[in-house]
Amino acid sequence: MRNVTDGSFRPIEPQNELTIGTEYFTNIQMRLLVLRAFGCCALAFAGPAHGQYIFENNQNSDFIGEYTTSGAKINATLITDPTVNRGLALIGNDLYVANTTLGTIAEYTTLGTTVSGGLISGLNEPYGLAANGGYLYVSSIGSGTVGLYTPSGAVVNSSLISGVGTAFGIAFSGNNMFVDNYYNNSIGEYTTSGATISANLILGVNRPTGMVVIGNDLFVLCAASGRIAEYTTSGALVNSDLVSYLPGDTGLATDGKNLFVADQGSSSIAEYTTSGATVNLYLIEGLSGPYGLAIEPAPEPSTTVIFIGGLMLAFLVCRGRTRNGANAHSLNCKFTQS
């Protein structure tokens, strides 16, 4: 046991071995066992740091499919709904879908159950969807606005940002957001509360249809040129031709590490690195006009669970039995004064 005065270890009683089942351990081995217990808990609960599941909607069919980000099919017809046709966004375990024709946003669980077919209605051609800070941002191309809503569909501000024209893509960087303007070939920057930072942060973008932010870089899908361009989040051009020849690209998403592109021309989803290298040109095939993409992040390791798990194992160790001659005694784990 530790002496709280000088930090040294000394036994309370002449007990120097621990038994768990039929295995005996010295005090030093016991301490190593406790440390290993904490380590095992950390490894057991540590999950992948990047995205795990990818959802895609098919503009030419009635389905939303679910796949892993490694391309494995989970359910190609997870959701069947003839009104599904545009942007997707995820908040927790719920998937939100924009319907441009009906002017609505539908809500489903990530298991495919319908929560509300018309969670938000009365919109003017909703197209782009994005989630940030537990709120839903909706771009309506008919009114040239971006609206802000709660996950339950309540209106926070239906015209949080106005005058954005035909906005297909929304992306976030901290407390700022980027909104593209398809026909103006531009990207504007705003705060998430709606204040304009620069309505024309980036000009000369060839028909932007989607954006993602990874670190300090903004990746933009340019539909007319079939390319992905890279900029800094301050608007400086890094590479106008990071990825080229995407003949029917319509959707862009990220798992926080790589870029995933929906290609209507080949009815597939491709994967690229942020340096532009092709990971898999046909990661997911056999789709029907894929448009919107949304990626569900994998659970992060829970430090609370790791800590509690380690304490439980340490407690079990301390509750073990020690052998001192022919008699067995409980091992008291406590500090003592000299």
| Name of the level-1 CATH class of the largest domain | Mainly Beta
Low-confidence stretches: 1-5, 8-25, 32-50, 302-319, 321-338
How far apart lie the N and C ends? 11 Å
Could you state the CATH homologous superfamily of the largest domain?
A: TolB, C-terminal domain
Percentage of residues assigned to helices: 10-25%
- Count of helical segments? 2
DSSP summary, beta strand count: 28
Count of spatially separate domains: 2
Helices and strands, in order, run as: EEHEEEEEEEEEEEEEEEEEEEEEEEEHEE
CATH topology of the largest domain: Neuraminidase
Question: Mean pLDDT score, rounded?
Answer: 80
Widest β-sheet, arrangement of strands: 2-1-27-28
Based on secondary structure, the structural category is mainly beta
Net shape: globular
CA-based gyration radius:
27 Å
CATH architecture of the largest domain: 6 Propeller
Strand content is over 45%
Query: How can the largest sheet be summarized?
Result: 4 strands, antiparallel
Tell me what you see in this structure.
This protein has helices spanning 27-45, 303-318, and strands spanning 17-20, 23-26, 51-58, 63-68, 73-80, 88-91, 94-99, 104-109, 114-120, 126-132, 135-140, 145-149, 155-162, 170-173, 176-181, 186-191, 196-203, 208-214, 217-222, 227-232, 237-243, 249-254, 259-263, 268-272, 278-284, 290-297, 321-324, 327-330. By secondary structure, it is mainly β. The chain has 2 domains: 17-46 and 303-330, no CATH class; 51-297, TolB, C-terminal domain (Neuraminidase, 6 Propeller). A 4-stranded antiparallel β-sheet has the order 2-1-27-28. The protein has a 4-stranded antiparallel β-sheet with strand order 5-4-3-26, with no helix packed on it. The longest helix has 19 residues, at 27-45. The chain is globular, with a radius of gyration of 27 Å. The model is unreliable at 1-5, 8-25, 32-50, 302-319 and 321-338 (pLDDT under 50).
